[in-house]
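Subject: FAD-binding FR-type domain-containing protein

B.,
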Amino acid sequence: MDSRFVRAIIRHFLTVIFLGICMMWIMAPTNTYKQKWKPAISKKLVSTYFGTRALNMLVWTFPVLFVAAMGSLYLHLGKKNSNQNVSQSGGRKRWPALWRRPVLVKGPLGVVSGMELALFVMFMALLAWTLGNYLNRLPTVTAKAAAADGIKVWQEKLAKSALWIGLTGNVCLAFLFYPVARGSSVLPVLGLTSEGSIKYHIWLGHLTMVLFTAHGVCFVVFWAVTGQISEMLKWSYSDISNVAGEIALVGGLGLWAATFPRIRRRFFELFFYTHHLYIIFVFFFVLHVGIGYTFIALPGFYLFIIDRYLRFLQSRTSVRLLSARVLPCHVVELNFAKSHGLTYNPTSIMFVNVPSISKLQWHPFTVSSNSNLEADKLSVIIKCEGNWSTKLDRMLSSSIERLGVSIEGPYGPASNHFLSHDTIVMVSGGSGITPFISIIRELIFRSNLSECKTPDIILISIFKRSLDLTMLDLLLPMTGSPSELSNLKLQIEAYVTKENEPTTDNLKRVRSVWFKPLPTDKPMAAILGPNSWLWLCAIISSSFIMFLILIGIINRFYIYPKDHNKNEFSSSIQAVLNILAICVSIAATASAAVFWNKRRYAREAMQVKNMEAQTPDGSPDMMAYNGDRELESLPHQSLAEATKIHYGGRPDLRRLILECKGASIGVLASGPTTLRHDVAAICSSGLADNLHFESISFSW
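Prediction pasted inline below.
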């Protein structure tokens, strides 16, 4: 059976399930669900194995995990077809392109496309619908009901409102972890990337904390005015645990305070470390509401745990760092050995950890290499600006024979969607050029394939100093030759804004550093091998089945004999047991998958190990070579014919973009926020209907 046909069936099947999940979120706050659907379904599902929690497991947890598993299978089949011809014109898909066009450029939400705005409005409508349905029950609060609780009517309404605000906050929490599950299949199936979806995580995080803070404050006020302030110290045996909720809220507030842009940019380490408070937040949230209600928000966190554990296993290996190029503009290119089975798409990113600098800090960097053009090597580019990268620059400037490095990733888009355009305009500011290097290398590879038609490329790069022009030399890999550009229609417009003429010396030196890896250093490899999506499908499905078996045994032989489904058993103990069952299930299945792939592809790693003999002159004795080679401050000779350099001004982006020819023009912007906003404003101005904008922003 044709894999395209199978993918089409899966896609339509997933669409139906997705619409069903959306319907359940709409119905959840209604009286119809509470009074009719929920009792009817729960009555059929209650058992000695899963107790009264079976309803939420079936309705909320299972469908999403099923979508994630089937989505992994869908992506696996798509990867097998990745070599198909993708050169058709993007103009054929007019309506999707219109949806992706930016409609909001400047504002608190940043650059927002039509589809993103529509989804944002729909989500806000869901929150308003949820809270509105709950608040519509306020008229049912009578003086008689309040008197029965020994309080006034407005106090009873305050308590009810506080509860409903918290329930609305749970809607945000249910979606909070999807954008940060980097290796999950949910984002690629929707056409999203992890780095591009961080802004959704930020939006959801703010909404979650606003609602949960209001929830907590309202309850504190209620307890204060009713003389029940001692309720703040209550840890219920089988009901809501107030202390757990307060600890979760305090942890969340500490995390939230460090996420605001000014703090995050100036004190990144503070932001990084306080973000680990999410463990406290989630753990005590589960103890607060109980595991039964947690199943509503569990799927996103479940997928995040799988992703986080796989990243943990990958980060335990020290990878083989072969060489580095240190540019005079304080830019570093690190070159790693990799297995041939590790493939990735342009604009991918990778998280790097250097234990000799910091054992805890992980920083994301753009992958500049291309897995087709450079089958046995992977490169990342680092602009040395912050404390961490400056220390790395100093270490590489000294005489070191080896640098221990661990990695997570790479992560990137599921397809090379930019190939569908007739012309690609890439606008970069400073180090924002780095994601475009991988795109150009991909197009260099495809331009040398007779059956592939590659789009024309216009690269508009803006630099402050002429010394920064040396970054253009990274467009070609270390082993690149001028002939590789002969079939590529490349035009480079470089602008130096702070200088009216070249002020650097005629010759600048690039430092090439070659390392002596240890025998224990391994080539980079996909943690789940070449068939990673298929293995992820197996991990998601098998771990959830294992979890159901474990929790069924615990309920049947430990909880049910004591509780008999009366919900009088300790909610905290049940929560801890379920958390342990989830962790054990994920750890067992993921570890087995990783171990199997390590054994299977160990032979390939031994073959790649021979790369350590490759040095500047091919001699093993030169492995520790640290050399300086002369490099003009202008681009490499192979790029000179394609490059035009302008001094003392900024580019007229409107003119340069609108003058481009083609039925479909992809406009990519990477760099400072103002630059991306300016390019987005041009594409959304309506002056041309063939412009398709994409912002490449790394806001980790």
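The CA atoms of residues 388 and 493 lie 32 Å apart.

T.
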